């Protein structure tokens, strides 16, 4: 049994998937970073109006905003949903979605001649898509499941609610934003577009049932090292080679606290960039941790290492700048357990088994939560995000529409019958 009109979901997903809305990290001071995102935001605004919402395009933030008015007389606090229009940093020119009806669970040829296959031996999660309508790319671009599946899931919910006026709900706000992949969408969201919204959800990736109310705390550490250049023939006792100093620094970084040795609730350091010559060197390190104290300890470790090496090699050879990027949403959400319980209660009512885990990254929700709207993360279905092997099924997006609708219904139900404020348990 499906929930909504699968034809609408398939058609709408393919339509938006074909639009090249790749964001541009080198153009992040422009809003949006790539012009096609304006086109898509305007199109979405139009579609929201056609469905029956009050909608507008905010040209300062490049968000398409929609408001579905409450159809009950109860006082229900408004609820919000976000998904982003831009796609990851991967080829998005001439996206050709392929539809595989009643997928047989086997190997899928994306481009037979070029030898590009999507193989469940390599990607076992594909097996769960058997019998469904699978959508893939042609193997040369990404598909844009992240987060066009989220957008279509929201549209599916809205269409359903408008078509079923007897299904009661409070005010619902939706926001389709730009530039999430480059870390600017949520940052530029204007909370005035979501008046009185008390809680919201992002729809970043994940399988049906996944749920995250923890993201990393994130810092970028930039270390600049300066050496002393002397002609090598006369360098004895004088030259200080910045490359040597850089290697000393990197040698003392914890070898086991790196992404390739971290999972679950572990944090890490990752050297994302290093470059050097005799005169100077630069190291960029990202610091990630869920736990606030461990996160601060990681920042402190870098500060201490810089101080130690400065002591050994002379003051100010190493210069450190720490830039805080975003904060774990849990720091706020822990005081708003309803936001979490509501979603998990709705999953159960929608017949979907919740799978609570950590989001090993950041979302628009990091910034939106900081702006006063606690925003944990649901899912959008699909898999293999950000590359040529991306896929999603129409049925998974349908499930998402069902979950979103159930959250709206459950929010009204708990407004009437008492909120589930059970304190959050540590699940890790
Ligand atoms: Zn995303």
Automatic annotation (TrEMBL):
<dbReference type="GO" id="GO:0006508">
    <property type="term" value="P:proteolysis"/>
</dbReference>
<feature type="active site" description="Proton acceptor">
    <location>
        <position position="180"/>
    </location>
</feature>
<dbReference type="GO" id="GO:0005829">
    <property type="term" value="C:cytosol"/>
</dbReference>
<feature type="binding site">
    <location>
        <position position="146"/>
    </location>
    <ligand>
        <name>Zn(2+) 2</name>
    </ligand>
</feature>
<dbReference type="InterPro" id="IPR011650">
    <property type="entry name" value="Peptidase_M20_dimer"/>
</dbReference>
<dbReference type="InterPro" id="IPR001261">
    <property type="entry name" value="ArgE/DapE_CS"/>
</dbReference>
<dbReference type="GO" id="GO:0008270">
    <property type="term" value="F:zinc ion binding"/>
</dbReference>
<keyword id="KW-0031">Aminopeptidase</keyword>
<feature type="binding site">
    <location>
        <position position="84"/>
    </location>
    <ligand>
        <name>Zn(2+) 1</name>
    </ligand>
</feature>
<protein>
    <recommendedName>
        <fullName>Peptidase T</fullName>
        <ecNumber>3.4.11.4</ecNumber>
    </recommendedName>
</protein>
<feature type="domain" description="Peptidase M20 dimerisation">
    <location>
        <begin position="213"/>
        <end position="315"/>
    </location>
</feature>
<dbReference type="GO" id="GO:0006518">
    <property type="term" value="P:peptide metabolic process"/>
</dbReference>
<feature type="binding site">
    <location>
        <position position="146"/>
    </location>
    <ligand>
        <name>Zn(2+) 1</name>
    </ligand>
</feature>
<feature type="binding site">
    <location>
        <position position="386"/>
    </location>
    <ligand>
        <name>Zn(2+) 2</name>
    </ligand>
</feature>
<dbReference type="Pfam" id="PF07687">
    <property type="entry name" value="M20_dimer"/>
</dbReference>
<dbReference type="Pfam" id="PF01546">
    <property type="entry name" value="Peptidase_M20"/>
</dbReference>
<keyword id="KW-0645">Protease</keyword>
<feature type="binding site">
    <location>
        <position position="181"/>
    </location>
    <ligand>
        <name>Zn(2+) 2</name>
    </ligand>
</feature>
<comment type="similarity">
    <text>Belongs to the peptidase M20B family.</text>
</comment>
<dbReference type="GO" id="GO:0045148">
    <property type="term" value="F:tripeptide aminopeptidase activity"/>
</dbReference>
<dbReference type="InterPro" id="IPR002933">
    <property type="entry name" value="Peptidase_M20"/>
</dbReference>
<keyword id="KW-0482">Metalloprotease</keyword>
<keyword id="KW-0479">Metal-binding</keyword>
<dbReference type="InterPro" id="IPR010161">
    <property type="entry name" value="Peptidase_M20B"/>
</dbReference>
<keyword id="KW-0378">Hydrolase</keyword>
<dbReference type="InterPro" id="IPR036264">
    <property type="entry name" value="Bact_exopeptidase_dim_dom"/>
</dbReference>
<keyword id="KW-0862">Zinc</keyword>
<dbReference type="GO" id="GO:0008237">
    <property type="term" value="F:metallopeptidase activity"/>
</dbReference>
<feature type="active site">
    <location>
        <position position="86"/>
    </location>
</feature>
């Amino acid at each position: 049994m499906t929930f909504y009109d699968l034809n609408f979901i398939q058609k709408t997903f393919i339509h938006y998937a074909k639009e090249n809305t790749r964001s541009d990290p080198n153009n992040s001071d422009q809003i949006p970073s790539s012009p096609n995102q304006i086109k898509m935001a305007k199109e979405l605004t139009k579609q929201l109006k056609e469905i029956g919402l009050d909608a507008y395009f905010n040209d300062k933030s490049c968000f398409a905003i929609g408001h579905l008015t409450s159809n009950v007389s109860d006082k229900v606090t408004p609820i919000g949903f976000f998904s982003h229009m831009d796609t990851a940093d991967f080829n998005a020119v001439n996206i050709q979605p392929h539809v595989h009806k009643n997928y047989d669970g086997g190997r899928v040829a994306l481009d037979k001649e070029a030898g590009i296959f999507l193989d469940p031996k390599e990607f076992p999660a594909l097996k769960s898509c058997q019998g469904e309508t699978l959508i893939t790319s042609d193997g040369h671009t990404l598909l844009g499941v992240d987060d066009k599946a989220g957008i279509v899931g929201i549209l599916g919910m809205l269409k359903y609610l408008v078509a079923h006026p007897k299904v009661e709900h409070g005010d619902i706000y939706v926001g389709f934003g730009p530039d999430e992949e480059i870390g600017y969408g949520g940052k530029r969201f204007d909370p005035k577009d979501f008046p009185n919204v008390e809680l919201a959800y992002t729809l970043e990736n994940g399988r049906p049932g996944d749920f995250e109310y923890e993201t990393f705390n994130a810092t970028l550490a930039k270390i600049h090292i300066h050496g002393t250049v002397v002609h090598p023939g006369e360098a004895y006792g004088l030259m200080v080679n910045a490359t040597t100093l850089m290697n000393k620094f990197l040698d003392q970084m914890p070898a086991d606290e790196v992404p390739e040795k971290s999972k679950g609730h572990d944090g890490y350091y990752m050297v994302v960039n290093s470059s050097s010559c005799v005169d100077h060197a630069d190291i960029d390190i990202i610091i990630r941790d869920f736990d606030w104290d461990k996160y601060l300890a990681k920042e402190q470790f870098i500060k201490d290492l810089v101080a130690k090496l400065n002591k050994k090699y002379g003051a100010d050879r190493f210069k450190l700048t720490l830039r805080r990027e975003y904060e774990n949403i849990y720091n706020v959400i822990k005081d708003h357990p309803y936001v979490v319980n509501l979603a998990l209660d709705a999953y159960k009512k929608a017949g979907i088994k919740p799978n609570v885990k950590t989001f090993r990254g950041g979302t628009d929700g990091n910034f939106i939560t900081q702006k006063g709207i606690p925003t944990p993360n649901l899912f959008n279905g699909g898999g293999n995000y950000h590359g040529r092997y991306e896929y999603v099924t129409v049925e998974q997006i349908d499930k998402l529409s069902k979950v979103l609708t159930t959250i709206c219904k459950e929010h009204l139900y708990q407004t009437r019958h008492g909120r589930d404020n059970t304190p959050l348990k540590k699940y890790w």
